Each structure stands twice: as structure tokens, then as C-alpha cells.
Amino acid sequence: MEKTSPPDNTENLAADLTVVREYLDRAQTPEHLSAKEEAQCRQQLIELMNRKNARLVAHYYTEAVIQELAEQSGGFVGDSLEMARFGHDCDADILIVAGVRFMGESAKILSPDKKVLMPTLEATCSLDIACPIETFAPYCDAHPDRTVVVYANTSAAVKARADWVVTSSIALDVVEHLMEKGEKILWAPDKHLGSYIHKTTGADMLLWDAACIVHEEFKSRGLQNMRALYPEAAILAHPESPEGVLELADVVGSTTQIIKAAQSVPNRQIIVATDNGIFHKLQQLAPDKEFIIAPTAGNDATCRSCAHCPWMAMNTLPTMLQALEEESSEILVEPQLARQAMTPLQRMLDFASEQQLMVKGKA
Ligand code: SF4
Prior knowledge:
four-stranded parallel β-sheet; Rossmann fold; disordered C terminus
């Protein structure tokens, strides 16, 4: 594939780290429950979900106890695209979205007639924070010749301004599709994922400058040392990780793709560069394998260098129970904005279905 010139980063819009830190300071460490309290909370939630016809939709990065509860109670565990799809397809009156705010918004956009609750509305994402519509919209206006492709980790307002919304599992395919049509792309907000896609496809991409605070902590030097320690291990990395980490990886992919790869690669030991919440599902599906979290410590390591998203960690059984009891922490998206955001979201879902059909057709 012919490569075009590298991405034009001259108009970098640096993420407002101060704002991100302010949000992080509000992300409190959840209180620890005793085994008895946890069992009581789970039972109460199951009863209440049955009574209110509610379903729990959880992300792979949430705590193991939440993922277990979702599966036991007829809910769902998945990546952000699968979560939104499940929420749309199920017949619940109430969806409890255990994840971060943009996931709740996507669920509401796709299911406007359902009540969407979150354990806390404070759970956000550094990518969403670093791409406010007030600066993003003028940036798009300044580049009318580019197709605007945004990652799902954005607000409803940013989605509404985009031509396409993508998740990490489908981003590469969508950009390849646009490139084949000769389109130039404005990509936001994750610079590492954007850069990985550019490198892989050669597409002409203008990149917004923001990053995931969890994946950015993975260090290539530490990963090299770890590979020396576990020479037989495969390395699986999420594309939100820095370039040096991705270069060392045997497989680069979304959470779902990492889970599939963990089962299919022959290696018994697997080093994983993504949020450690995924280990629950990995261990469940590949119990005979040993999973090792990629190193995050380095010279610039901070107390946040723990490979776990502080906002995902805000989803707890007590906050979920309170939200469902009171029907509080509801996600509301203004109907006109929801309709506008639905267009690029639907484009992605239609594209995903078409791709699926093509794959089936070839099989
Ligand atoms: S892990 Fe990163 S991308 Fe995911 S919600 Fe947390 S900050 Fe956002």
C-alpha cells in the first residue's frame, strides 16, 4: 500500500492536562466491601433489576464482581460497541451502564425510549475531556475538505459534529474504506490510535492531540525488559498505547480482539497492554494461560500508573444499587442532538453489519 505524507500535526491542540487532573482528583477510590456486604448488595440488585425490568451492561474494564453480576442477571459484558448494540436490542425498560459517561450517552442515543442510568455521572474519560465541542467544532470548520472521524470516546455533541463514529474494533476498516474512496480524514481524539491507523493504512489524517491516561502509561523500555524475562510470551496491546509499545506487540487490537487473540495464540504466557479489568474475562476464557500486565512504571511513573482506569473504578455495587433504587444518575441527551449523533453512529453500525455479511459470504 502506498504511503502518503505523515499526518499534519502542525495545528496540534494539546490536551488540557489541568482539566484532566481536576477530574482525576474527583475520581475517588471506591470503598472496600466485606464478602457479606457484597453478597447482600448483589442480591438486592438482582431483585431490583427483575422488579424494574432493568439490565446491567458492563464494560470489560469494570471490576470482576460487576462483570459477573451482568452475566448472571441476563445483562451483558463487552466493548463499547457491543454494549450499545446489546442495550438497543434487549427489551429492558432500564439500562444500567457500568462504564464511563460516553458509553451511557451512546446507549441513550441508540435507545432513546429506555431509561439509561449510570452508577455515577462523574465517571468520564480523558479522551472525552480533552476534546470539548467548543474547540473541536471550529477545528472541523477550518478543515472543510476532510471527513471527520471520531472515536466513540467522545461526547454526544462531538459525535453530532462528526461524519463517522468508530470504536477501536472497527476504526482501521472504516479508515481504509474512506481512503479507498479518496477521502482525507480529520481524526479525533486519540493521537496514539490515530497514529497507528495512519501508519498501518497510509491514509491522509490530521490528528487531534489527546490520549488515554491509562494506556499512555505503558512503557516500551519496561516492556522490552519484560519480554527478556518472559521470552516465550506473546504481547497483546490496545492501539491507545504509545507507538513504542505497539511496535513490540504481536497483536494490536481492541478489547474484543485482544480477548480473541488470547485464546487463539499458542503461547501459554501472555503480556497484556490494556486496562487490567480485562483480566477477568481473559482468565475466564483461557484459564490455562498466564496473563501478565505490561509494565507501566518508568521515570515519569505516577500514583496513577496502575493500568486501571480511575473512572471505570468508580462503578461499584453500592453506587449501582443507589442509582437503580432512586432512578438517579440518569443519562439524558437532548433529542435533537441525539438524532444528529445517531447519523454517524448508525453509519458505523451499518458498515459493521455489511462487513459481517461480507465475511460470512466468503466463508
Ligand atoms: S481506560 Fe482510557 S479510554 Fe478507557 S475510559 Fe479510561 S481514560 Fe478513557
